[in-house]
Amino acid sequence: FYLTPPQVNSILKANEYSFKVPEFDGKNVSSVLGFDSNQLPANAPIEDRRSAATCLQTRGMLLGVFDGHAGCACAQAVSERLFYYIAVSLLPHETLLEIENAVESGRALLPILQWHKHPNDYFSKEASKLYFNSLRTYWQELIDLNSGETTDVREALINAFKRLDNDISLEAQVGDPNSFLNYLVLRVAFSGATACVAHVDGVDLHVANTGDSRAMLGVQEEDGSWSAVNLSYDHNAQNEHEVERVKMEHPKSEEKSLVKQDRLLGLLMPFRAFGDVKFKWSIELQKRVIESGPDQLNDNEYTKFIPPNYHTPPYLTAEPEVIHHKLRPQDKFLILATDGLWETMHRQDVVRIVGEYLTGVHHQQPIAVGGYKVTLGQMHGLLTERRARISSVFEDQNAATHLIRHAVGNNEFGTVDHERLSKMLSLPEELARMYRDDITIIVVQFNSHVIGAY
Amino acid sequence: MFLRLLSDVQWRAAHPKWRRMTSSQRSTSTTAEPHPVSLPAQAQVVICGGGIMGTSVAYHLSRMGWKDIVLLEQGRLAAGTTRFCAGIVSTARPMSIELKMAHYSNKLYQQLEQETGVQTGYMKTGSISLAQTQDRLISLKRIASSLNVMGIPCEIISPKKVVQLHPLINIHDLVGAMYVPEDALVSSANVSLALATAASRNGVQIHERTSVSHVTVQKGRVTGVETDRGRIQCEYFVNCAGQWAYELGHSGEEPVHIPLHACEHFYLLTHPLKEPLSSSLPTVVDPDGRIYIRNWQGGILSGGFEKNPKPLFTEGRNQLEIQNLQEDWDHFGPLLSALLRRMPGLEALQIKQLVNCPESFTPDMRCIMGESPTARGYFVLAGMNSAGISYGGGAGKYLAEWMVNGYPSENVWPLDLKRFGPLQSSRTFLRHRVMEVMPLMYDLKVPRWDFQTGRQLRTSPLYDRLDAQGARWMEKHGFERVKYFVPPGKDLLDLDHSKTFYKPDWFDIVGSEVKCCKEAVCVIDMSSFTKFEISSTGDQALETLQYLFSNDLDVPVGHVVHTGMLNEKGGYENDCSIARLSKRSFFMISPTDQQVHCWAWLKNHLPNDSNLTMEDVTWKYTALNLIGPRAVDVLSELSYAPMTAEHFPSLFCKEMSVGYANGIRVMSITHTGEPGFVLYIPIEYALHVYNEVMNMGQKYGIRNAGYYALRSLRIEKFFAFWGQDLDAFTTPMECGREFQVKLEKGMQFVGQEALLEQKQNGVYKRFTMFILEDHDTDMDLWPWWGEPIFRNGRYVGKTTSSAYSYTLERHVCLGFVHHFDEKTGEELVVTTDFINQGEYEIDIAGQRFQAKAKLYPFSSLFTQRRRKDEVELS
């Protein structure tokens, strides 16, 4: 079975999405030029999610990738809800009041976010009322709390993550009279998701990470070469600090059983995650909720199963680690990607491939004649060659697609091998997950001119 | 930087007077004391901008006797776009007013060095415009016809001749060329300095390094200028700030909208050839290759107008963008290819520099000149679309005349600031439009082309309905208007392929719309027309309008009057229809593009009386024109009111109900001479009335029609349109409209004296209708407008509009005939006999067609068939 190049392309490009930030939105010059994103499923249906939105009531842009496990329900919910929680956390007191008053008196709400979505990125209509009420409770508490201090982005991110996870857990405990919704909130709570979210405002870049997705900064050195800078830490068994942290939080008697086979309690790869109430609730609570829950839940072996050595919950948290980075003109792009990418490619290669792709397409070094002796003919030859290079090599219009092509199709020499690509993409559904994971990538490009002017 | 050095050398060598005036220490150092002389506290005129435009205006004003003038320049004289200008003075311009400006500039620059002692680098090299296609050659031939009748030498030449004139040109892909031997090259910075020198000698004060922050306006008049070095009181302000003119216009409290936008513009400078090029070698323009090439210091200077321009400064003066103005070779690549294809011998020529100099462009590719409609005394001259040096002299002269005499010596309406309004002032609109305009500089300009960007801004409420029925659109003053309706199942050519100088693809479509107008009934949406309401508590409205309009407006309520709004010379400032709604209120309909101009004219002339109010109600009404003999039937069935001539004579206006909608203003006028009505419908009823009309009209064969049909109808009926045939230099006497002038209406009106004089002494031009005799509609080039008219082999004038008459099955051209004395060229009185006793020819792109001249429309076309039918029936 063999896929032709156009067939390969149609598979690779099915989920690609690009957004160019308007060069001037009437208020600000943006430090973000735009972003490319894409997903390649291995699970059916895919368990990864992605989100991107512009904050309308504050400045800045939010981008995130979410890697679900034990189903996609939790990743879906987080991808819909998390940015609202962050945006609300960032809002000044007056704006919160204004929004609350609008809801109270039934007036139109100020729009909070402008989403940049691929048509396949859906929102669940059924739950929107429920989600909205939880969000509203949150901002009402923020209004009551009115600390009077200006909102710190780091804190806002941490609060938003923790609050959302808390709401997910609460909604599952309380349940919903509507049986469809009731089952939904339970599925969300019993599945899990990691999140890696970037907030860009001018030169201030914050990355909040929970789990094992990764944010990587592409830096162009003076000599034109590319280097990768980590803007997140993986929360898994490979991270000593994480292992240390988990051990600190539980009695010494559990030390041996906490991490087994590089997994939390021998079961879970990421050490932090949304949902996964199996690792958060007490055994009694789990049993109570499952018993009173719908039959589908009761019949599910996975949800009913209590992890071994489960003594002192919670074992899992959604609290992110936040890294702040001041953007410099040499910081050209940021890659957010789920572990599906990082387990197949080294971060240096990832940054190099994207860097070369973007400069080839957009930032080809300008030619300057300067004091050199150049004839019209020579210049013409040079320009023709540059044009030819651009048009032939880069069939991809999207940096994320380009990266996926390499991630899936690279041979031992680091170049795309069509035969390999074709094989990998034509694997039957049940086999695909054995050879590769879901891959979700967002490549954000920065405007060096704007950043340099700050 | 080289040009900068060059200009500095000239600057000192010339020792211009202002340099000594402004330098208190008599040192040659120009930087030691930047502001030695303080600004005057007041002046009659303050000019902002020391480029070619500012200095030219100063020069001409001072030559006309105005002395109390201050010119302010934020940096140094001639240091902006002017410094980087390629310095080509080219008269090959398609529009006659532009051609005249360029011609004058050329003559001015030629003697400037002698006049001022400043070297201008003037060199008469001539220019060659190349044609790679037959269509391009046609467009060149049209220009050549215009140049020839102006007395500017000009020749269409073969490719072989091109090589003789310029040995480096590769001619294998050429079909011909146009040679203009008197075109010239100058150093534009030095021309500007020379003009400044002469102006300074005439008493103009010039202050450099002084920037204007804003202009103050009180009670609608300029009162002064705030600068970074203090305030100057003044009566007149002239905004010659080039690409910054938009920002400066918006800096005051009352914004002056100057719609222009800058684009990056590149040209290449090379080192000299091994055998340096002669400085007399003609300039080469290769519009199909999008480039121009001139000799420069033994090497060449070559630039062009690329397909993908880079607009900049959209947000205003952005420091980032200014820093980033650098050579962009990748962007210049296609132009470089075109250059090497045209002159392959230059391969080994060494590059000196790629210059990036921003140029400003306007929404319609024509420059912006004239007085602000809102602030009197605020004049503007900017937006040169990269022809600043060609227009500089002439544009400065016209603006100076405008300020001194109240109006320039030529009709400059096509360039008038008032053709634009706030409408065209959006930065997004300008950014998008100039990206279309810049490539258009060298695109083939065929008849009836429309801009594609910045569309669908103003639309009728029926837009979607009409669009769904196959409407094809054109735009006027931001308003979408229907050209014609493509019937279902019929396809027209795409935009690029429909470009033609010959018979267009919509010929039959418009033909059937015209037929329907003549035999049944058609609906044309004419909502774009400008509509004002003028009313007063007493008789003020009537009195004022009687003074401003030449026809008698003291008519019974419900009557409609066609009348001109004339200036002192009797020329048409506007041509409109006015309905008397009541004793004290009037409803005025003017052409679409009159919205700003007419408003400003009325505002300036209406007495300052709070009991007299004027309102722009253009947006409140949708206008549907029902044309054709069956219009009366449709309307009477819809309104249950008798609409026959006895009950509703022509030129009548009545509010009535149509369908369920009440308060529809129905007027028995059409703009074509066909029988019919115009319905002014409050917009919320528009869709209802339209649907009712279409349903009811079905049994009478009603259909939609567009402006092309209207145009054909009005031209075959010899109806003149303002802006096309009529302008501020045309009087009613000159276009056979004496009947719309009531010299004896019992009171004075503007232009009366001039008209009286013409009535006594005769006119010097006469609006005439020409029917082309030996013209083959299918095979020959179509007339457009601007074609020279020949009488007994001698040039007598130009056409102003033309259309195919489906009734006569001939082309009809309208135009003005002058009578030039055979020996002296002096203009003589044009009599009816003079018109009738000539043999006429119309020159279309160098080919002459016999034409029959007529002073009055065909009477047979006027018989209203409806009436005949009725007679027969009874």
From TrEMBL, chain A:
Reactions listed under catalytic activity: O-phospho-L-seryl-[pyruvate dehydrogenase E1 alpha subunit] + H2O = L-seryl-[pyruvate dehydrogenase E1 alpha subunit] + phosphate
The UniProt keywords, alphabetically, are: Acetylation, Calcium, Hydrolase, Magnesium, Metal-binding, Mitochondrion, Protein phosphatase, Transit peptide
Localisation? Mitochondrion
Per the annotation, which location comes first and is thus the protein's main one? Answer: mitochondrion
UniProt xrefs under InterPro entries:
PP2C, PP2C_BS, PPM-type-like_dom_sf, PPM-type_phosphatase-like_dom
| GO cellular component annotations of the record | mitochondrion
Q: Where is the signal peptide?
A: none
Sequence similarity = Belongs to the PP2C family.
* Protein known as: [Pyruvate dehydrogenase [acetyl-transferring]]-phosphatase 1, mitochondrial
From TrEMBL, chain B:
Subcellular localization, as worded in the UniProt entry: Mitochondrion matrix
- Could you tell me the keywords of this UniProt record? Mitochondrion, Transit peptide
Q: What is its main location?
A: mitochondrion
Q: Which InterPro entries match?
A: FAD-dep_OxRdtase (IPR006076), FAD/NAD-bd_sf (IPR036188), FAO_M (IPR032503), GcvT/YgfZ/DmdA (IPR028896), GcvT/YgfZ_C (IPR029043), GcvT_C (IPR013977), GCVT_N (IPR006222), TrmE/GcvT-like (IPR027266)
Limits of the GCVT N-terminal domain: 462-745
Protein origin, superkingdom: Eukaryota
Residues forming the Aminomethyltransferase C-terminal domain are: 765-858
Occurrences of domain FAD dependent oxidoreductase central (ranges): 405-460
- A UniProt-annotated Pfam family: GCV_T_C
Q: What does this protein do?
A: Decreases the sensitivity of PDP1 to magnesium ions, and this inhibition is reversed by the polyamine spermine.
Its subunit composition reads: Heterodimer of a catalytic (PDP1) and a regulatory (PDPR) subunit.
The entry sums up its family as follows: Belongs to the GcvT family.
Q: What is this protein called?
A: Pyruvate dehydrogenase phosphatase regulatory subunit, mitochondrial
Native organism is Orthonyx spaldingii (Chowchilla)
The root-end lineage is: Eukaryota, Metazoa, Chordata, Craniata, Vertebrata
